Inverse folding.
């Protein structure tokens, strides 16, 4: 047997035990040298270069023993908080099962699929398992094309569905797309929350599907007007187009319902899930559809293996999924998100009235966004739209609160804490925000007062994001 030893490699191989003992500086150096030098630079400049060594529930600890409150929630992957014990218990229970054995019918994955059919809206029935949000979208696009025999996919401006080539082709941010063109052909972007624009796009009746986030996450936490989701459903029915709901970020209680579609009793033909389905521990993606679509897309012996994934439906991820959903119900997290979200939103709107630097407060449940706007044109130009990052930097460095801006809209800070957050923690964030706004009436003083002077950030870095 060949074993990799320190001696047998040109550069010393780092054992896990050694990696655990690495200093923060060694970690930073390895990240910079072997993962992404520019991202490392940007994180350092913004003060996001802590070495985090422990996490539990709402809290994260750095190597110096400081405690932070996590109001970012893993971009929606941590509805249960960090390292929920129930998920590790589930993993323990199946640790002696084969984790990956494709030539078998995995009973744990089948049980999770049955559960998903029960908890998702309407007649959604068959689930394809993958490993991420983008993969769940890839599957949805292929399903829609295979089921309809049509190729056109309509998507929304400002949408975010992932960065693999298919998902990127229906993601509405030019910055992420340009350099990779040509993307998937026959896709068309329309305005979000505009039913007339959707109707004119669908009229040609040549569309396989319309893909939609019921609430846009990375676009800046955009909630459509009441009635939009139902109107979308009706139009898709009328023009014979499949409706794909991307619930990757909105799913599993985040918006105050188990799925955001339920706010309007909207039943999609295909639904994408990921993030919190893994309980914040295991990567998992899932695409569920109804019998009719499944039958047309993959419903023969010849077609049933058209789309596959090596790790999709592995035992550990499926067991985590079963436990995650159970825990969301046991802890009443949908109700909690609804109740705490209403409280948080109200208080944030009060802040907005006092500080016009907050242009708008938006969101539903515990998926909230603060849209910042500095009237000062000079700073606006210098900071190149990264006003949200300034506030996020202050929250982190002065108040030990973790937040981040939304990917498509860097002026928006997202507040998406784990759904287990308590009122005192919400109040602490509100007070901290108020302190920041009180002492920084404009972003000029914020930028100048920042521990890392963001005005000095090279434009090169400012143009980058995650
Ligand atoms: N869809 C939505 C709505 C998302 O918010 C995201 C990620 O933020 C994705 C898809 C992509 O998920 P992943 O990063 O797991 O590929």
């Amino acid at each position: 047997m060949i074993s990799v030893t320190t001696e047998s490699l040109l550069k010393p191989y780092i054992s896990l035990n050694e990696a655990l003992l690495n200093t923060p500086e060694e970690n930073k150096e390895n990240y910079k040298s072997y993962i992404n030098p520019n991202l490392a630079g940007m994180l350092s400049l913004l003060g996001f270069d802590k070495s985090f060594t422990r996490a539990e529930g709402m809290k994260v600890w750095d190597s110096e023993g400081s405690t932070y409150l996590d109001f970012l929630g893993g971009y929606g992957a941590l509805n249960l908080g960090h390292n929920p014990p129930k998920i590790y218990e589930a993993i323990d229970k199946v640790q002696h099962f084969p984790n990956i054995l494709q030539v078998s019918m995995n009973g744990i994955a089948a049980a999770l699929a049955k559960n998903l059919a029960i908890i998702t809206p309407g007649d959604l029935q068959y689930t394809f398992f993958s490993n991420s949000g983008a993969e769940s979208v890839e599957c949805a696009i292929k399903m829609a094309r295979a089921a309809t025999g049509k190729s056109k996919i309509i998507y929304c401006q400002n949408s975010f569905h992932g960065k693999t080539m298919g998902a990127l082709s229906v993601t509405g941010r030019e910055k992420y797309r340009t350099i990779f063109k040509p993307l998937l052909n026959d896709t068309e972007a329309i305005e979000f929350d505009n039913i007339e624009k959707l109707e004119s796009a669908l009229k040609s009746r040549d569309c396989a599907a319309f893909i939609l986030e019921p609430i846009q996450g990375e676009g800046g936490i955009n909630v459509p007007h009441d009635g939009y989701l139902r109107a979308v459903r009706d139009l898709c029915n009328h023009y014979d187009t499949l409706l794909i709901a991307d619930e990757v970020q909105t799913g599993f209680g985040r918006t105050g319902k188990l799925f955001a579609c339920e706010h309007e009793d909207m039943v999609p033909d295909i639904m994408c899930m990921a993030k919190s389905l893994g309980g914040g521990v295991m990567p998992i993606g899932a695409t569920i559809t109804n019998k009719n679509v499944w039958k047309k897309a993959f419903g023969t012996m010849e077609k049933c293996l058209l789309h596959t994934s090596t790790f999709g439906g592995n035992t550990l991820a499926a067991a985590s999924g079963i436990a995650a959903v159970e825990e969301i119900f046991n802890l009443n997290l949908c109700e909690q998100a609804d109740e705490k979200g209403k409280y948080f939103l109200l208080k944030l709107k009060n802040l907005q009235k006092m500080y016009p630097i907050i242009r708008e407060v938006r969101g539903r449940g515990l998926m909230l966004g603060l849209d910042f706007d500095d009237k000062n044109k000079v700073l606006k130009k210098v900071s190149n739209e990264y006003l949200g990052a300034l506030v996020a930097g202050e929250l982190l460095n002065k108040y030990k609160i973790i937040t981040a801006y939304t990917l498509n809209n860097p002026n928006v800070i997202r507040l998406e804490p784990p759904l287990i957050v308590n009122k005192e923690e919400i109040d602490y964030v509100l007070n901290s925000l108020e302190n920041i706004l009180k002492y920084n009436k404009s972003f000029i003083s914020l930028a100048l007062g920042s521990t890392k002077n963001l005005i000095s950030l090279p434009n090169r870095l400012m143009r980058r994001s995650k």
Remarks:
- The first strand starts at residue 52 and ends at 56.
